[in-house]
Amino acid sequence: MNASIQRFERKAPPGSDLPVLMVPAVQGESLLDALPRLQSDIEAHLATVGGVLLRGFDVPSVDRFREFAAGFGHPLLSYEFGSTPRSGLGGGVYTATEYPSHQAIPLHNEQAYTRVWPMKIWFHCVTPALEQGETPIADSRAVLKRMPAAIRERFAPGLVYIRNYGDFDVPWQKVFNTEHRHEVEAFCRQAGIAFEWKPDGDLRTTQRCQAIEAHPVTQEQVWFNQAHLFHVSNLQPEVRETLEDVLGIDNMPRDTTFADGSRIPDAMLDEVRGVLDAEAVSFLWEKGDVLMLDNMLVAHARSPFKGPRKVVVAMAESHSNLQAH
């Protein structure tokens, strides 16, 4: 067993098994070559624990990572209706979110602010940061259980996500991967998103989505939303104050309300953030690592970092609850 595997350390809440560590049969084993041997075990761990870390394998290129992810039998997904800037590397592989290195990205399930999301997500560490740069993860079932009952009850009917695209957020052309309004409108109608073109040509969308959802295979209830990320309380206080003065509370770049349209108190979302932090599991990346998650059972985040860092992402197995609600 090589040194990086011997020193695998993680910070985790009591009782957490995340992530299941899987290692080569022999030193230098190719991850792609190991897939037939590992696939059934990986899928079993994903269905129970929710996440697997593959460490110590040879992953010589992003192309090989792409082949590994595609080897689970589902076409890799394009990043549609995105909420953060990232760059496509071809064939369904993307850079991780391109926020500045000093910023933390809170725990969240990928695209939980929509009603169509990937069930599987892979992260591949091409270059670990010099300092920090972890991708913390958390069990979404444990988050739901730890969440105060009053918050669970208030969130249960769902949430409404509001987005005003333009100068203060990702432009709609980049979010929808098109310059054509009619293509945006077709996407929104299919995805159950209400849209409005404003006089200045910018776009406003609203969508009612789940806050708590049942996993389609295990039927377990999970905390599955991004209220704490979209709500105005996620902004730095001075940024929030400036934007509210300039735009008004109804035209903020992003916001979240309860399903009935009433405002979510800042203090309630502070409690939500506290629960997420308490369930966080973190470990330092090693070059070549691949982390595979069930996107409903496990949330992910990003710690601030120093130095160059390259982590790439792939997603697969689209799931929708549009017919269920």
Automatic annotation (TrEMBL):
Enumerate the InterPro entries for this protein. Answer: AlphaKG_dependent_hydroxylases, TauD-like_sf, TauD/TfdA-like
Q: Which cofactor does it need?
A: Fe(2+)
Classification of source organism: Bacteria, Pseudomonadati, Pseudomonadota, Betaproteobacteria, Burkholderiales
- Every copy of the TauD/TfdA-like domain together lies at 26-314
In Pfam terms, one family for this protein is: TauD
An example of a GO molecular function for this protein is:
2-oxoglutarate-dependent dioxygenase activity
Task: Identify the SUPFAM superfamilies for this entry.
Answer: Clavaminate synthase-like
Name by which UniProt lists this protein? Alpha-ketoglutarate-dependent taurine dioxygenase
Q: Which Gene3D superfamilies does the annotation name?
A: Clavaminate synthase-like
Q: Which UniProt keywords apply?
A: Antibiotic biosynthesis, Dioxygenase, Oxidoreductase
The Gene Ontology biological process annotation of the record reads: antibiotic biosynthetic process
